[in-house]
């Protein structure tokens, strides 16, 4: 990197680094061998990295909305930590996507794409509900993502494999946190049980999409279902809750988040997340 | 330092402190993976503790600056993602320094299992770094930085932090 420290990167002499837009001094994959392995399709690798990177980025954004809104300070800290882990994973994955496609970087991918270009599952973009709703979403998301990352550890792409190896440790903690709260609320008072059940019911229609095969999946998500079901069963059993009996959310002729077809919530989320970078291209402070 | 001492690039890099756990050097923390010296050129390999660790940029900059100050003109700091960092790499000296500063050092990292088992009940208790009480209470699995958790000691009544075993 051309800068000796973080401050040098944001001074006037280095105004090409666009501090408001990103951080000119810290490529998350600096010094990592990023050649695309032989026999791997670079476009597929880019798309897949983008899908997993977008899941992490959008979930991270929703979790970060809990700052100043969580019921307890400890949970605010916990949710912010989980958001930070996912943001770190997003940076690595979006950087990988940019390298494999040969276009842009983590910042242009996060801030300058439109809604239809985002490849995240719809579960992560849903507007923030109450705490039980967030715990239900985090339980489903982290259980599914952990099962996926465990398989990605053996990816032929060494960068994806390395990112997954690290992320497995992080997401295990996220899942335990969500599972702990699901049990505490589900097996708590009648009122907390009711709220937890309602949260679970609200997000459950979006679970089917997580296991739907997409043409560029490097890990077949339908294989994750048995592990997901087993973990959910043990958590819900301890919480005195049951799997909601709800109809999966409709798709548009089979197309959903992975194809860039999102819910209404996504546009509002991007408007907030991207507004500073788009309103002040090249801004520095 | 006496005239006979030779300060290597490894010594210089190993002396850089972690910005979030400043009682530890990056060598104590186990994230300094390799230092290769070739004349004026030095290649340093470091491994992030967490994917989103915000200290990586500062550590990278510190390593580069200190090696420049020590006369190495050409410094290349590389990120090594695999094998992933584990708290088992924190040195014995590093563990002692953590405890001296009231932070419980990590217990042994959980054995690698696939699928990762769910932890619903209590995790093994972390001994209090102040009074040694073995049976303490975990207040939150997440703390002020990604690598720490919050606990309370029922014996001495003090809150304390621990480094999460990963």
Task: Give a quick account of the main beta sheet of chain B: strands, pairing sense, barrel closure.
Answer: 4 strands, mixed
Q: Which spans of chain B have pLDDT < 50 for at least 5 consecutive residues? A: none
Order of helices and strands of chain B: HHEEHEHEEEE
Strand order of the largest sheet of chain B: 4-7-6-5
Secondary-structure element order of chain A, N to C: HHHHHHHH
Backbone structural class of chain B:
alpha/beta
- CATH-defined topology of the largest domain in chain B: GMP Synthetase, Chain A, domain 3
DSSP helix count of chain B? 4
Mean pLDDT of chain B: 89
**Any idea what the shape of chain B is?**
elongated
The assigned structural class of chain A equals: mainly alpha
Which second-level CATH architecture of the largest domain in chain B applies? Answer: 2-Layer Sandwich
The CATH homologous superfamily of chain A is termed Ferritin, core subunit, four-helix bundle
Low-confidence stretches of chain A: 1-25
How would you describe this structure to a colleague?
The complex is a heterodimer of chains A (285) and B (166). Chain A has a single domain (41-210, 219-274), classed as Ferritin, core subunit, four-helix bundle (Ferritin, Up-down Bundle), CATH 1.20.1260. Helix content of chain A is 54%, strand content 0%. Chain A is built from 8 helices and no strands. In chain A, helix 1 (42-64) packs antiparallel against helix 2 (73-101), helix 2 (73-101) runs antiparallel to helix 5 (158-186) and helix 4 packs antiparallel against helix 5. The longest helix of chain A has 29 residues, at 73-101. Chain A is globular and about 55 Å long. Chain A starts with 41 loop residues before the first helix and ends in a 6-residue tail after the last helix. Helix content of chain B is 20%, strand content 21%. Chain B folds into 2 domains: 9-79, Fe-S cluster assembly (FSCA) (GMP Synthetase, Chain A, domain 3, 2-Layer Sandwich); 103-163, no CATH class. Chain B starts with 8 loop residues before the first helix and ends with a strand. Chain B has a 4-stranded mixed beta sheet. In chain B, strands 1-2-3 form a 3-stranded mixed beta sheet. By secondary structure, chain B is an alpha/beta fold. Chain B contains 4 helices and 7 strands; from the N terminus they run ααββαβαββββ. The radius of gyration of chain B is 18 Å and the shape is elongated. Chain B has helices at residues 9-14, 26-29, 56-69, 92-100, and strands spanning 32-38, 41-46, 74-79, 103-104, 137-140, 148-152, 159-163. At the A-B interface, helix 2, helix 4, helix 5 and helix 7 of A face helix 3 and strand 3 of B.
């Amino acid at each position: 990197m051309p800068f000796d420290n973080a401050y040098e990167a944001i001074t006037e002499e280095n105004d090409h680094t666009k501090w408001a837009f990103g951080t000119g001094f810290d490529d998350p994959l600096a010094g990592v061998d990023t050649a695309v392995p032989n026999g791997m399709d670079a476009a597929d690798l880019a798309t897949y990295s983008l899908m997993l990177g977008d899941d992490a980025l959008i979930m991270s954004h929703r979790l970060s909305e809990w700052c100043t809104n969580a019921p307890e300070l400890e949970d605010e800290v916990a949710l912010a930590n989980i958001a930070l882990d996912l943001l770190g994973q997003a940076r690595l994955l979006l950087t990988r996507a940019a390298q494999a496609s040969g276009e842009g970087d983590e910042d242009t991918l996060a801030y300058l794409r439109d809604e239809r270009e985002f490849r995240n599952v719809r579960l992560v973009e849903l507007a923030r509900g109450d705490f039980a709703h967030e715990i239900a979403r985090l339980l489903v998301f982290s259980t599914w993502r952990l099962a996926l990352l465990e398989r990605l550890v053996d990816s032929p792409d060494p960068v994806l494999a390395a990112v997954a190896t690290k992320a497995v440790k992080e997401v295990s903690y996220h899942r335990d946190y969500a599972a702990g709260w699901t049990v505490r609320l589900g097996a708590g008072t009648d009122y907390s049980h009711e709220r937890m059940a309602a949260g679970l019911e609200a997000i459950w229609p979006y679970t089917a999409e997580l296991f739907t095969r997409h043409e560029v999946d490097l890990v077949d998500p339908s294989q994750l279902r048995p592990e997901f079901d087993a973990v959910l069963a043990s958590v819900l059993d301890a919480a005195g809750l049951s799997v909601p009996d709800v109809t999966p959310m409709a798709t548009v002729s089979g197309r959903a988040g992975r194809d860039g077809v999102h819910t209404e919530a996504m546009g509002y989320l991007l408007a907030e997340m991207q507004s500073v970078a788009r309103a002040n291209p090249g801004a520095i402070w | 330092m006496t005239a006979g001492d030779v300060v290597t690039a490894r010594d210089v890099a190993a002396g850089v402190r972690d910005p979030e756990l400043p009682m530890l050097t990056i060598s104590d923390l186990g994230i300094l993976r390799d230092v290769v010296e070739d004349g004026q050129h030095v290649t340093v390999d470091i491994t992030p503790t967490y994917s989103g660790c915000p200290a990586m940029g500062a550590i990278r900059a510190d390593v580069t600056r200190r090696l420049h100050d020590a006369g190495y003109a050409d410094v290349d700091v590389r990120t090594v993602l695999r094998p992933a960092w584990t708290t088992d790499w924190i040195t014995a000296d590093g563990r002692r320094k953590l405890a001296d500063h009231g932070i419980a050092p990590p217990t042994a990292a959980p054995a690698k299992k696939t699928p990762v088992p769910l932890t619903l009940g209590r995790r093994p208790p972390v001994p209090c770094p102040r009074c040694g009480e073995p049976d303490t209470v975990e207040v939150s699995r997440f703390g002020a930085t990604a690598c720490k958790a919050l606990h309370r000691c029922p014996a001495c009544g003090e809150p304390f932090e621990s480094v999460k075993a990963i």
